[in-house]
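Sample pair:
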Amino acid sequence: MPATETLLAFFLASLVLAVAPGPDNLFVLTQAALRGRSAGLAVTLGLCTGLLVHTTAVALGLAALFAASALAFTLLKLCGAGYLLWLAWQAWRASSTSIRTAPEDRLSGWQLYRRGILMNITNPKVSVFFLAFLPQFADPARGPLTQQLLLLGAIFMVATILVFGGIALLAGMLGACLTRSPGLQRIMNRLTATVFVGLALKLALSER
């Protein structure tokens, strides 16, 4: 097991990385603003479940495939970009009342949770990032590397939940305003669609 000071340093670094603007916290922000705090928290849990997949992949050495294989990396990132474009289309065509008042257009907590998972696991850069980041805090002299990497991944997820959960709670305040303003709802739908398109392009054009 890594030393306590190493785990503390890793936790602080993870907090900083979670706060830095990126696709995942933007996703939480927009969903919480549009659909409420519970939606943002559901997405947060989904994203963290995706992190569990990446952590396991790194611990088992599978992420090395995406670092070494251009084809595998390209296929996965295109799948992720396609999913983001589909979300953009859904947001763009949403009516101004669909956020809170149209039952057929509402997304359940489970659906939002799945969105978070899919967005995270279809971004191969997360696995590559974990492959580069987690081993820096592991020490072969302090026990099995697989266990250390899984522990570091769990700590990273805790930091992510704290930061993204805070974002969801704060953005949820904006959601209360949206329910009283159809015009603001339409603007947020368009902004959300734009964010998704931007994230899809960024992912599609990313390099290893």
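The chain has a mean pLDDT of 76.
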